[in-house]
Amino acid sequence: MTTPTSRPEPKRLFIKTYGCQMNVYDSERMRDVLRPLGYQPVDGPETADLVVLNTCHIREKATEKVYSELGQIKKMKEASGGKMTIAVAGCVAQAEGAEIVRRQPAVDLVLGPQAYHKLPEMVARASRAAGDRLETEFETLEKFDALPKQREADGPAAFLSVQEGCDKFCTFCVVPYTRGAELSRPVDDIVIEARSLAAQGVRDISLLGQNVNAWHGAAPKLEGGGEWGLGQLARHLSRIGGIDRIRYTTSHPRDMDDDLIAAHGEVPELMPFLHLPVQSGSDRILKAMNRGHTAEHYLDIMRRMRDARPDMALASDFIVGFPGESDQDFEDTMNLVREVGYAIAYSFKYSPRPGTPAADMFGHVPEEVKDERLQRLQALLKQQQTEFNASKVGETLPVLVTGKGKMPGQAHGRSPWMQAVHFDAPESLVGQIVDVKIVGSTMSSLTGEYAHAVEAA
What we know:
Layout (H helix, E strand, L loop, with lengths): L10 E7 L3 H14 L4 E3 L8 E6 L4 H20 L5 E6 H13 L5 E3 L7 H9 L6 E2 L4 H7 L10 E5 L1 E2 L10 H4 L4 E2 L2 H13 L4 E5 L7 E3 L8 E3 H8 L7 E5 L8 H9 L6 E3 L7 H6 L6 H14 L4 E8 L6 H14 L3 E6 L17 H24 L5 E9 L5 E5 L5 E5 L8 E9 L3 E9 L4
Parallel strand pairs: 1-2, 1-3, 3-4, 4-5, 5-6, 7-10, 10-13, 14-15, 15-16, 19-21
Antiparallel strand pairs: 8-9, 11-12, 17-18, 17-20, 18-19, 20-21
Helix pairs in contact: 8-9, 9-11, 12-13
């Protein structure tokens, strides 16, 4: 009599994600490629067989947090008798690969953003104590080709990467050095992934890219051939059954073309929300940043977007205290914010990144000046965000229910403008778009009363 072979116990995987939505997407795909090896996600690193830190290199403090985290995980590895495998992925890995191994020898694997499809192979090598520890070459197209075409959805909203890399070379930014040149995924691959997500109940798709509106690709032959931009891609994806909401982030003003602006007025599924970083309202500082646009060019885009879609909500990023920024340069930024009026915005003090041109510029602004300017800017942005949310009180909004709220019997969802909405409703509504009457607001969220389900946003 043959004794049945017992299945090996699942391996435990913990991934901690830092930074942008691209990293969130990358972490999801790492879970996808590791799943066939028997890895199942766990909520903490303490008992994990494999710990992956998917890192961000945009600001210096974020980098130091990674090294601090590695110190704590090293202790967990020692407590496991050395059985835990530690991997550092993402942009810090790309920029500081050898330095990571030098500073923290407990790290087993280092892989850049274009190499995570090789993670199963690298894990296997590490388990055999053979092979290289570093994999940081740029191979974006190979990465996309190697990824599984199907992926497991986690809720009714999902990210979908369509573009990677950056050719803009803003003087403050490390992305061109950590993510490589701009590269667009083929239309067919994007559509296959989108259909797979829709089949699993995903209704809200966010198209991702470092410069997502730089995406371009050959149109399917059935669509007449030629080359598409992001506007045409959005039109095509809107015809996939079940996809009710399409968003995209992050954009660059230089790539905001007429067709994409027009698509916002023609495609109901394309949400009335645009995140378009400007960084500064001063033409002098924009030139020093190598942004390639002026404040007036940016403002013209804002006007045309609102002409195409009058209910458009706008978001942006700002850097204060860039080298050489004068009081007048900062006031130009404040004036731009007042003219546009933002639903949400992200603002930071300038932080020099090694290897970028701005790090060697003259005229670095004192920290106390940066602090004072940032406080003034954030106060204005918070006021605008609070006013935008308050403007929705009394309206009935279509809300995509994404999960349970923090309180018993409470649901959580997202409005078309990306606002968090909390309201009492049964958990069975998760994945549906329902009418919610907004009865209250704060700077960060809305409170509502559930009305009834609707077909689409």
